[in-house]
Amino acid sequence: MEKMKKKTVEKKVEKKVEAKPAETSINQSLSTRGRIFEGTVTRKFPKRIAIEFERTLFIKKYERFAKKKTRIHARLPDQMADQIQIGDLVQVQECRPLSKIIHAVVIKKIKSVEEKEQ
């Protein structure tokens, strides 16, 4: 019986050691997964932004391509709120649903308005 007790104790210790390391990102409590989008900021709110980007869509009937605009609402972290302005090019990634319309979070700022104009 003593041997069996020792084995179970060793297994428990191994499980504790194999814990996942914490992710180092802007949103430590929010895990991101899924697709990554890049777009320009069209509207800015205190906790979220709306980005817009164009995509091409093939219309089978006419055998032509059409441009469509897609709008995505993303959560704006408090650390990045003062850095991002309307017109900036940002990168967002999908995450779990945060509200009725917010399903993405801002990862990083690619270009600012001043850099785009030059």
Describe the structure.
This protein is 18% helix and 46% strand. Strands 1-2-3-5-4 form a 5-stranded mixed barrel. The chain starts with a helix and ends with a helix. The chain is built from 2 helices and 5 strands; from the N terminus they run H-E-E-E-E-E-H. The model is unreliable at 13-24 (pLDDT under 50). It has 118 residues and is α+β, with helices and mostly antiparallel strands. It has a single domain, classed as Beta Barrel (OB fold (Dihydrolipoamide Acetyltransferase, E2P)).
Sequence of secondary-structure elements: HEEEEEH
Structural class from helices and strands? Answer: alpha+beta
The coarse overall form would be globular
- Gyration radius (Cα, Å) is 22 Å
By CATH, the architecture is named Beta Barrel
Task: Give the amount of beta strand, in percent.
Answer: over 45%
Annotation field: number of helices: 2
Catalogue the unreliable spans: 13-24
Lateral arrangement of strands in the main beta sheet? 1-2-3-5-4
| CATH topology term | OB fold (Dihydrolipoamide Acetyltransferase, E2P)
Record field, number of beta strands? 5
Mean pLDDT: 82
CATH level 1 name: Mainly Beta
- From the N-terminal CA to the C-terminal CA, the straight-line distance is 77 Å
Number of domains: 1
